[in-house]
Give the backbone structure.
Amino acid sequence: MPRQSKDYYAILGVSRDASQEDIKKAYKKLIKQWHPDLHPENKKEAEEKFKEIQEAYEVLSDPQKKAVYDRFGYVGETEFSQQGAGNPFEDVFKDFESFFGRDVYDIFFGERGTEERQQSRRRAGEDISITVEVSFAESLVGKQIPIEYERYEKCEHCNGSGVEPGSGYQTCPRCHGTGVIREERRSIFGVFVSTRTCNNCGGSGKVVKEKCHSCGGAGRIKKKVRMTVNIPAGVSEGTKLRIEGAGNAGYNQGPYGDLYVIVHVKPDKKFRRQDDDIYAEISIDYIQAILGTTVKLDLPTGSTTMLRIPPGTQPGSVFRLKGEGAPSLRTQRRGDLYVTVNVKIPENVSSEETRLLKELARIRGTDL
Ligand SMILES: [Zn+2]
Ligand SMILES: [Zn+2]
């Protein structure tokens, strides 16, 4: 039998409109009941059940996953990291890196202490997320998608420092270069002295003489980015692709953030994916089911094949087409395609058909 889409509600024994409270209650009860240690005689089955209950709860207790499941009947979710070995995204990343160049830190400070303080103010840029949409077939074969988005890039004029080149730094006028502000409070008990970090220079003791004319001192500038993203074969709804360094430029020459490309797979009328297997249904005439036939079958990737239906095929029979499912995102190994055959019984028959069917009934000894 093929694996069907799991009914998480049935697994937890709750109705489709059960509250989060009810779902949690049902889960707690079942997870105790099916703990594999409590079933030494059929441990394997208990483990299976235990896992299934956990899986169901993981989806139904998470409003986002639950919404996806309620809509599509399954939850596809894969975090796909840019750094993996042999990963199809690597090329895009390399291009990106050579295009934008590596960060080069220029040291503007003579004194060591100040430089360290400056470094501590470096901060990575924000990550950016964008969503792309692919058809079901495209999710199986992959696609190059041109994208366009806005991000902050390091200001080239000041190399991200925010300082107008050639202007350099001057001693902070507020703290006179000490980096701290001294405050005195007089009371009847005497004079209290406290110190705090100077907020004019952030404790560095130096301030920019002249802010960068190009970025106004921010060190980064908003720019439109156009690039082509390689959506690898095997992505499913919600797959996240990370492109390292394609997010916003950092602060004070900190590193770039990352770009997350979130894939939305348009649901297909004919095909439904569950893990790496795909499910479809076809209908044949009852006479074809009895005598056998060959039908043209649409494949999920958009091509077609001929499917042989043997004589005597029963309604609801499932045919498995090995390797015609979805490729695994990580291994690219393909799942299978399961085709359920529905048998159409005619609702209206002509008088001649009726005559022939009655004749058949007589030959088969079928009571009418
Ligand atoms: Zn200062
Ligand atoms: Zn600048």
Observations:
- The chain is about 25% helix and 30% strand.
- The chain has three domains: 1-75, 79-168+209-265, 268-368.
- The mean pLDDT is 83.
